[in-house]
Design goal:
With 488 residues, this protein is α/β, with parallel strands linked by helices. It folds into 3 domains: 3-90, Udp-n-acetylmuramoylalanyl-d-glutamate--2,6- Diaminopimelate Ligase, Chain: A, domain 1; 99-326, UDP-N-acetylmuramoyl-L-alanine:D-glutamate ligase (3-Layer(aba) Sandwich), CATH 3.40.1190; 334-487, Mur ligase, C-terminal domain (Protein-Tyrosine Phosphatase, Chain A). Helices cover 31% and strands 24% of the residues. The chain contains 15 helices and 24 strands. The chain has helices at 3-6, 53-58, 84-95, 114-126, 156-168, 180-184, 214-223, 240-243, 297-310, 317-326, 352-363, 382-395, 411-422, 435-444, 474-487, and strands at 13-16, 26-27, 38-40, 63-66, 77-80, 104-109, 132-135, 139-142, 145-148, 173-177, 193-198, 228-234, 250-255, 262-272, 275-284, 288-292, 334-336, 343-347, 370-374, 398-401, 428-431, 451-455, 462-465, 468-471. The strands form 4 sheets. It has an 11-stranded mixed sheet with strand order 9-8-7-10-6-11-12-13-14-15-16, sandwiched between helices. It has a 6-stranded mixed sheet with strand order 17-18-22-19-20-21, with helices on both faces. Helix 12 (382-395) packs across helix 13 (411-422). It is globular and about 75 Å long.
């Protein structure tokens, strides 16, 4: 493969050597450099790839892509670009043969709702014969293969690698979560999206390692709508106009507002023992009734988003309704059958904002009690612990404080911090450090009409203790408790 082929869509300067050389691999991790490869020097938050220039040259790198001066032997080509992250994205696309151009790529951005909506879109489209890849917070789905995720939006090289594998697996479309960080760090640069979706915006991800302020957060979300054919937006979100300020795409809207192109009306919460759901009527660009087995108004928004997307794939109404009825997302308000008298669910809510949103939704179903089981991760902000304790104390009828991922902290120390927040309220609570025993306590003390929320870990299947990830899945713990109770 000639280096010029990888650079064909970039502006660059040859500082040393030649761009006409043959290269063997495209690499951005210095540990993976091999003889004849081209190494992209990424300036990251933790380390700067430029500092490895001499090391990778000794390993046999044939060329380096840089933003600044490096000192390497004259036989090594040095190519200067304005932004090496941007360069990696366009070079990765070329390296894998521009796979995105042979797929219909659907990108979903927003603070909440991305994960659920991607699975809903996949479910609907596959119901009419499309083969759909998925990239998101939980996993990447490529044909029959599932790859656990490290980031909501992977590095650009990985995205194009997945796209190429999806084509090999027979996929014609891909739906992916597009995070603001992914957009900011050019992970999706050079991809032209068939459809881009904006779900909502909340004041999250602001900090030294993420976005400097809310304006920057909004600006980064808006990048998606400069690289798609059609943008579909939640018109009810107060920041919708700001996010779409620089949009270059055609735009459609969805929401509850009368002005939405696709809107939900006649919303009705459905409750029966062991089940919570919602139904509503779709108006505007389409006209039919929908029922979904996931509770809450945010579930209406998520499903309405999926409908807005699938309308452009000419999916019949009956197929949409059928797919939405069975669409499930692991660890996102995931109902687990434990009793005919009360309801139990698993959810990923792991900060105060997401927990408050979930508990507020459940209040709309008028449960006898809301019982919340949760812990907090170790080696993370103590403020989160205080806030989550206060939210659960204020909005739950009873809280069972337990362990999450303690990492390098003592579980009891984390629980004590949560109790600090809990004591700011009148909420009743108990601390049960062992997560399985906490689940057992909740089930044994469940009352008719209760909703029990097992929050924090969601789709995770491990518990991290002192640098080691041990197998632990909330679903397995529930199953074990039920089996043990039955034996007794």
């Amino acid at each position: 493969m000639r280096l010029t082929g990888l650079l064909e869509r970039l502006e660059y300067e040859v500082c040393q050597g030649s761009d006409e050389i043959e290269i063997t691999e495209l690499v951005y991790d210095s540990r993976k450099v091999t003889e004849g490869s081209v190494f992209v020097c990424i300036s990251g938050a933790v380390s700067d790839g430029h500092t490895y220039a001499e090391e990778v040259a000794k390993k046999g790198a044939a060329a380096l892509i840089t933003e600044k001066d490096v000192d390497v032997p004259k036989e090594v080509a040095v190519i200067r670009v304005k932004d090496t992250r941007y360069a990696l994205a366009l070079m990765s696309a070329a390296y894998f043969g521009y796979p995105a151009e042979r797929l219909k790529v659907i990108g979903i951005t927003g603070t909440k709702g991305k994960t659920t909506t991607t699975y809903m879109v996949k479910s609907i489209l596959e119901g009419v014969g499309h083969k759909v890849g998925l990239i998101g917070t939980i996993e990447a789905l490529i044909g029959e293969k599932s790859v656990p995720a490290n980031n909501t939006t992977p590095e650009s090289y990985t995205i194009h690698q997945y796209f190429a594998e999806m084509l090999e697996a027979g996929c014609d479309s891909v739906v992916m979560e597009v995070s603001s960080q992914g957009l900011m760090l050019h992970r999706t640069a050079g991809i032209f999206f068939e459809i881009g979706i904006f779900t909502n915006l909340g004041e999250d991800h602001i900090g030294p390692n993420e976005h400097k302020d809310f304006e920057d957060y909004k600006r980064c979300k808006g990048i998606l709508f400069t690289q798609c054919r059609l943008g579909i937006a939640n018109v009810d979100d107060p920041w919708y106009q700001d996010v779409f300020r620089e949009a270059t795409c055609k735009t459609e809207t969805f929401g509850f507002s009368e002005g939405a192109d696709l809107r939900a009306s006649e919303i009705e919460h459905i409750t029966r023992p062991g089940y919570l759901g919602v139904k509503y009527h779709v108006n505007g660009l389409m006209d039919f009734d929908v029922e979904i087995d996931i509770p809450g108004d945010f579930s209406v928004y998520n499903s309405l988003t999926a409908i807005a997307v699938c309308r452009h794939f000419d999916v019949p109404e009956e197929n949409i309704k059928k797919a939405l009825k069975v669409a499930k997302v692991r660890g996102r308000i995931e109902m687990v059958k434990v009793s005919d008298e009360f309801t139990m669910m698993i959810d990923y809510a792991h900060n105060a904002m997401s927990l408050e949103s979930l508990l507020h939704t459940l209040r709309d179903y008028h449960p006898e009690r809301i019982v919340t089981i949760f812990g907090c991760g170790g080696n993370r902000s103590k403020t989160r612990r205080y806030e989550m304790g206060e939210v659960s104390g204020r909005m739950s009828d009873f809280t069972i404080i337990t362990s999450d991922n303690p990492r390098f902290e003592e579980p009891q120390d984390i629980i004590d911090d949560i109790i600090v927040g809990m004591k700011k309220t009148d909420g009743e609570y108990i601390a049960v450090c062992d997560r399985k025993e906490a689940i057992r306590y909740a089930i044994e003390h469940g009352r008719a009409g209760d909703v029990i929320v097992l929050a924090g870990k969601g789709h995770e299947t491990y518990q991290e203790i002192k640098g080691v990830k041990y197998d632990m899945d909330d679903r397995v713990l529930i199953k074990e408790v039920l089996e043990e109770m039955h034996v007794r």
